[in-house]
Design a protein that fits this description.
Blueprint (H helix, E strand, L loop, with lengths): L3 H13 L5 H9 L20 E4 L2 E3 L2 H11 L8 E5 L5 H7 L4 E6 L2 H13 L5 E5 L12 E6 L8 H5 L1 E11 L7 E9 L2 E9 L12
Parallel strand pairs: 3-4, 3-6, 4-5, 6-7
Antiparallel strand pairs: 1-2, 7-8, 8-9
Length: 214
């Protein structure tokens, strides 16, 4: 159930669901999703569904991974410096790692951080830096970013993340307090004090865990 034929069937399904970016499809065809889930779930790893990874977290549905990545790549500029907030299983990071020059990814749950860091290194990614930190604050040390992807849903977009975008940069983020009311949004920073928000489809993500203050 982890053969290339099985992966190809998933990619065919993603195309039928409307994913058009061929670079995204090419990379997702290559990334071994079964290595990013528990061995007991590996037989389901190429289904178009989210799966539990422990600690109350999930590996995202492949369609959502593809869709968010496609939206991230819609900007005109090449993505040299990108931030992901919420490493989780590291599957989304692996997909991004095949498409951008440098990726910083932040995970606050220590066991997930360690597993993701080691797995990405073992798979040969040398353009991905995994950090153990609270994603509310992004990763200021390597800002500003051409793009930011957030893989958990806050009630509202954290201002600190918008401030780490380059002018002209974009952020892909699910927003909404309740799972039935979350919307995938694209945030484009126009200037130091101005950004625009575009709403896309409804989504279901785990909540974005935020600290009260820093």
């Amino acid at each position: 159930m982890t053969s290339q034929r099985t992966r190809d069937r998933l990619i065919d399904k993603l195309e039928k669901l409307g994913i058009k970016n061929q670079d995204v499809l090419r990379v997702m065809r290559l990334v071994p999703r079964h290595l990013f889930v528990d061995e007991a779930l590996s037989s389901r790893s190429y289904e178009n569904t989210s799966l539990p990874i422990g600690h109350g977290q999930t590996i995202s549905q492949p369609y959502i991974v593809a869709r968010m990545t496609e939206l991230l790549l819609e900007g005109e500029a090449d993505l040299e410096n990108v931030l992901e907030v919420g490493t989780g299983s590291a599957y989304q990071a692996a997909v991004l790692g095949g498409l951008v020059k440098n990726l910083h990814t932040v995970e606050r749950i220590l066991p997930l951080y360690r597993t993701a860091r080691d797995l990405l290194y073992d798979l040969g990614y040398r353009n991905i830096w995994v950090h153990h930190a609270d994603g509310t604050w992004g990763w200021q040390e390597s800002a500003p970013y051409d793009a930011i992807m957030v893989t958990a849903a806050p009630n509202e977009i954290p201002k600190s993340l918008i401030e780490q975008l380059k002018i002209g940069g974009r952020m892909i983020i699910p927003v909404g307090e309740k799972k039935g009311e979350q919307v995938l949004q694209v945030v484009i920073r126009r200037s130091e004090n101005e950004h625009i928000i575009k709403n896309h489809e409804s989504v279901v993500f785990v909540p974005f865990l935020q600290e009260e203050s820093k």
